Backbone:
């Protein structure tokens, strides 16, 4: 049965308790909890267990996201610690999966790198920019493998979301990471906007094996100046290109707001948009 979940990115500046209330009042059967809200809640001294009374009647379909999945050195230790923390939250709340994203999360860093403005001594995180494709994918796969083992200890899995402006941003790269990680509790997030922006097609998504799809993010985006923009070397800015409600943009084709023909997912469909207006205020 299809599960329709509210991604709390739709109320980006709301707090987690208000998000739960809104999801219920809007008629959703599930909610996908997204950082920084779970972390803010825990950092304020609350426990995951204290959310359970609020969540009565609502399913937590996923928890995330742990960002910059390719981190190394002490950054890798931090990445795995975040996986441990959110895997525990997911287990307590009954969520089956934890989200991980490729990086760098900052599109400004990517823009500066591609323009030749990112100096060697620039302290901003750059992930695997400048690495070969094989090196970048191996870095993510290594961390995803370790993260999947941590998640498995908590009885949960992972879903990987390649971000459109990252150098690891394609569906094909995500599948190679999953294969190299070699863990059966790792799946893909099918995000309409990220995939369309990079040039992945509905037909490619429809061809995915059912067991590979852990989450679907239903969203839209404004028209791109080039199609697809990223394949021509442009760096898309999410806060500009996703400033639209679902079905109000030009995300690929008229069928982009509906499941691709033949596509089946094990996980839920999560409605989300990263708009900069009409947000719920408060933290």
Residues:
């Amino acid at each position: 049965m299809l599960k329709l979940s509210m991604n709390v990115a739709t109320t980006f500046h709301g707090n987690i308790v208000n998000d739960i209330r809104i999801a219920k009042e809007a008629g959703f059967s599930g909610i996908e909890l997204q950082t920084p809200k779970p972390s803010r809640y825990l950092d304020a001294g609350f426990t995951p267990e204290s959310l359970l009374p609020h969540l009565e009647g609502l399913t937590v379909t996923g928890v995330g996201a742990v960002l910059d999945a390719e981190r190394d050195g002490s950054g890798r230790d931090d990445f795995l610690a975040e996986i441990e923390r959110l895997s525990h939250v997911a287990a307590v709340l009954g969520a089956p999966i934890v989200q991980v994203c490729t990086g760098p999360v900052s599109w400004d860093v990517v823009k500066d790198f591609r323009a030749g403005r990112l100096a060697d001594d620039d302290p901003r995180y750059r992930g695997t920019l400048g690495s070969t494709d094989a090196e970048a994918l191996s870095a993510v796969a290594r961390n995803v493998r370790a993260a999947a083992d941590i998640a498995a200890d908590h009885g949960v899995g992972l879903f990987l979301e390649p971000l459109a402006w990252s150098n690891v941003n394609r569906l094909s790269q995500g599948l190679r990471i999953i294969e190299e990680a070699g863990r059966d509790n790792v799946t893909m997030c099918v995000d309409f906007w990220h995939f369309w922006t990079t040039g992945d097609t509905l037909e490619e998504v429809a061809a995915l094996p059912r067991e590979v799809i852990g989450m679907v993010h239903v969203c839209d985006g404004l028209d791109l100046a080039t199609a697809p923009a990223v394949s021509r070397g442009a760096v898309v800015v999410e806060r500009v290109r996703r400033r639209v409600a679902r079905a109000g943009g030009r995300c690929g084709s008229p069928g982009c707001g509906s499941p691709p023909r033949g596509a089946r997912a094990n996980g839920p469909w999560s409605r989300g948009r990263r708009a900069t207006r009409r947000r719920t205020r408060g933290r």
Remarks:
- The longest strand covers residues 59-66.
- The two ends are 34 Å apart (CA to CA).
- The chain has nine helices and eight strands.
